[in-house]
């Protein structure tokens, strides 16, 4: 009996190990099919997606730059928020929210809704938590995401905002897939990126995106460009919705 039990345990261990190995290999093969690795711009991570090199994430040490006094003049955030047509009951997610620059401007407008502030860095999330507490702002929720999952409730979001952050996603395919699950059927993604077509925009090339590249990547993820609003000084304002099957 003892020998039989040892045999069963050994067989089960072998099965679990093989299953885990198979899942890991499958995940690895999927990533290899989607992403490539090679040298490029030193400001990138050496990982490429659909011909575009992924940029390094701006660390929490850049909070002062996010909150710089000239940002409104350079990016015209007030106009961006008008473009979003935020309603009082909207549920909005700011992905890569950073220090909450846009979050705390949207919260009073979506006064009866919720603004999720999503970021991958603990320090950024803590900054938002502290600002929320200091301002006694009830309708802001901070979420620590992963590199592959925004960790938002499924079918709950009216509008997703990404400002100069998508190009830094280490796993863009997986991140957008998680956003798609979180969006309501008629939800919208507002993708804001520095214009890669414009050499006069004073931003490093790997931190810019062209409209064509953005449309190509979002199409693969099941989104179509509904509207492109050309009223920001340096950035594209591209509005994406789910493709109808």
Automatic annotation (TrEMBL):
Q: Which Gene3D superfamilies match?
A: Vaccinia Virus protein VP39
Pathway, per Swiss-Prot/TrEMBL? Answer: Phospholipid metabolism; Lipid metabolism
Q: Which GO terms describe its biological process?
A: methylation
Any idea where the Methyltransferase domain is? 91-213
The record's keywords, sorted A to Z, are:
Methyltransferase, Signal, Transferase
UniProt cross-references to SUPFAM superfamilies, sorted A to Z: S-adenosyl-L-methionine-dependent methyltransferases (SSF53335)
Superkingdom classification of source: Bacteria
Database matches in InterPro entries: Methyltranfer_dom, SAM-dependent_MTases_sf
Gene Ontology molecular-function annotations: methyltransferase activity
Which ranges of the sequence are coiled-coil? none
Q: Which Pfam families match?
A: Methyltransf_31 (PF13847)
Q: Mind telling me which CDD domains this protein's record contains?
A: AdoMet_MTases
May I ask which residue range the UniProt record assigns to the signal sequence? Answer: 1-20
Report the PANTHER family cross-referenced here. Answer: PHOSPHOETHANOLAMINE METHYLTRANSFERASE, PHOSPHOETHANOLAMINE METHYLTRANSFERASE ISOFORM X1
Record's protein name: Class I SAM-dependent methyltransferase
Q: Which organism is it from?
A: Dokdonia sinensis
